[in-house]
Write a structure and sequence with these properties.
Blueprint: E1 3-9, E2 23-28, E3 31-35, H1 41-47, E4 55-59, H2 71-80, E5 93-98, H3 101-111, E6 120-125, H4 140-143, E7 153-154, E8 158-159, E9 168-172, E10 176-184, E11 189-196, H5 205-210, H6 217-223, E12 228-229, E13 235-236, H7 238-241, E14 250-254, E15 259-260, H8 264-268, E16 274-278, H9 286-291, H10 297-306, E17 311-315, H11 334-345, E18 352-355, E19 361-363
Parallel strand pairs: 3-4, 4-5, 5-6, 6-7, 6-8, 14-16, 16-17, 17-18
Antiparallel strand pairs: 1-2, 1-19, 2-3, 9-10, 10-11, 10-15, 11-14, 12-13
Protein name: ElaC ribonuclease Z 1
Organism: Oryzias sinensis
Domain Metallo-beta-lactamase: 246-317
Length: 370
Amino acid sequence: MTMDITFLGTGSAYPSPHRGASALVLRSDGDCWLFDCGEGTQTQLMKSQLRAGRITKVFISHLHGDHLFGLPGLLCTVSLNSSADPQQNLKCVDIYGPRGLRHFLRVTLGLTGSQLLFPYAVHELEPTPDQCPQEGLLSIELTTERGPLHPQEQPGRTICLDAESDSYLLFEDKKFVVKAFRLFHRIPSFGFCIQEYDRPGRLKTELLKELGMKPGPLFGRLKAGETVTLENGRVVLPSEVLEKAISGRKVCILGDCSSVLGEAALRLCHGADVLVHEATLGNEHQEKAVEHGHSTPGMAAAVARACCAQRLVLYHFSQRYKPSSLLKDGDENEVLGLKRDAEEALQGGDVEVTLAEDFMTLTVPLRSTT
């Protein structure tokens, strides 16, 4: 099963000619999950090789505009490009984010008279008071939805922090379990852990031949974990004929933050194949970064080291840091300095550091059995 990450916007605060606002897509076997949706995300999607109509889930880390303003427009554009055939059973788009997101979408779509050709549901994460300064807490009155549901809106869940795991279980299916964890920012912010389930190991074909079995349906049943009985009465257990299981991949995507809260983040992100972490300003501006609820490359590296991530991807750069590809002769390559900041903090470790750029696609390869 293929898996990759495409960065649609790697800048902070606002979209610029050289960096879009925050947005990235995790793609797995054709399904696309969108993480954050800053202004202009739909335009970035059109310039990419991705199809907006493939987006089935959206995850919003926090309610600042550079992570959210693009969502209503994107939903409307996807609708315009959808089939109006009433016989077509369009899937519900599930949207996850902090309390207040449901009200934001309901009001925005309602005031603009926007109708969608597909259903959507907003599942809200209930923040805790320690996720931001007192003045950043959004009141219940401001964030509670009012009035009837939008015509295409389906009831969503309210997801509270599980005290035992210190995390939020968003959903799980046959392939993945997705959880959220708390971050500290100017307003409540969240990170997301996407954990793929372990995959069955390869069949021991030579042993199967010795047992008199030929390739066919029984192979598939054993691969799926079923016990089979041969014509001679021999019972074959999957554990006998399967090699060691292949560990599932793990991708962790953090929203804006100056720190993680509790132990859940490091526990959930432990051993991540890819850790995506903001690095708004260079290490020399750490005081300013923290004052505004953001991180530096050194701070991101500390998180990557603590959770033993294999690869650290930096993004959400201040617009002062232009992509290397746009620099002219004589220009200082400040963005490359951000990578050096992280690498210096990780000296002696095995963490690979990558600077995200708009439209960069990173493959998340399958793990080996060794």
